[in-house]
């Protein structure tokens, strides 16, 4: 186990009707004027937005609103929010929505806190935010874990680059998580969320670092619970316990718990950013489900025992000690079958990705040839092209690709 720092300053307010506490919480911290940032019509249609605004009014908190955040949030919307915050002297940003709204809010908070710096420079890793407006969240979709994480991802729609960076400024001050608010999430988006939660855990679990047994067991338990809850929520969208498990698992999957003691980089996430950056209609979770099985088959020969452990401990597959690769591949197949059962794609062709775009995606993912992604197998442009091609037609690409 490597040295690590575990830092989770976000105050979690979890359970039924907790969204009604928004005004009291904002007042408790002494903020005077709030930007309430949200997505589309659902926040209004469900009455959630009105309930949040009423709670602010009851506590005498001034506010301005900015809606319209789309899936895969865009830079121009964040810049609009930055201008609004500066104009209105906002001192707190309240995100009402899922990961896209929260990430847009974090970007706004960074920009408003550093008005003399173009916020996109942070995503190009050319500068680091020195401060930011504090952010709170009211979560409506269990998926990204942004409500408790240090990460933020934004798409620059002018060039199609989807980029993220981590910062201590991104940890929300508080997050209100009421599982009942996710009842209205449709089956497809529930499936996308389940995949995203699993992927945040899997991308940490399949790292190069050895001797992390306790962290491994935490990750395996989180994965098993997410799989069970994902199945239940898919069948009954108002199963409170299933929704609660998914919501809590989403937070724990991305707050640093399942990466304690590990060195990791989310290769599949990086490759997926090029899918949904170039094709904004692609939901992040769907892009991940379409890529992960091909990535796993590409790299598993280099850590067969780790993939076999995953198969045994998460999917209850019997270990074939004479042929551990069979066990490893069975675990990958079980994951792929689960994604299919949720209505998730397992190829990028299903998402409408054109084969001729593969080289461009790989080029962008390497930052035009300036980086390689460390992992079980280090990925450069050629390796990414192979994985993208496998993910285009997984059934014809063969059961496993041996690299090196």
Keywords:
single chain, 404 residues, alpha/beta, Rossmann fold, Dehydroquinate synthase-like, alpha domain, 2 domains, six-stranded parallel sheet, two-stranded antiparallel ribbon, EC 1.1.1.-, ADH_Fe_C, oxidoreductase, Iron-containing alcohol dehydrogenase
Brief account:
The chain is an alpha/beta fold and 404 residues long. The protein has helices at residues 22-28, 42-45, 48-58, 75-88, 99-113, 120-123, 187-205, 213-235, 240-253, 267-278, 284-299, 304-315, 324-341, 358-365, 381-392; strands at 11-14, 33-38, 62-66, 92-97, 135-139, 151-156, 161-166, 174-177. The protein has two domains: 11-182, Rossmann fold (3-Layer(aba) Sandwich); 187-396, Dehydroquinate synthase-like, alpha domain.
Task: Please write out the topology.
Blueprint: E1 11-14, H1 22-28, E2 33-38, H2 42-45, H3 48-58, E3 62-66, H4 75-88, E4 92-97, H5 99-113, H6 120-123, E5 135-139, E6 151-156, E7 161-166, E8 174-177, H7 187-205, H8 213-235, H9 240-253, H10 267-278, H11 284-299, H12 304-315, H13 324-341, H14 358-365, H15 381-392
Parallel strand pairs: 1-8, 2-3, 2-4, 4-5, 5-8
Antiparallel strand pairs: 6-7
Helix pairs in contact: 1-3, 4-5, 7-8, 7-9, 7-11, 8-9, 8-12, 10-11, 10-14, 11-13, 11-15, 12-13, 14-15
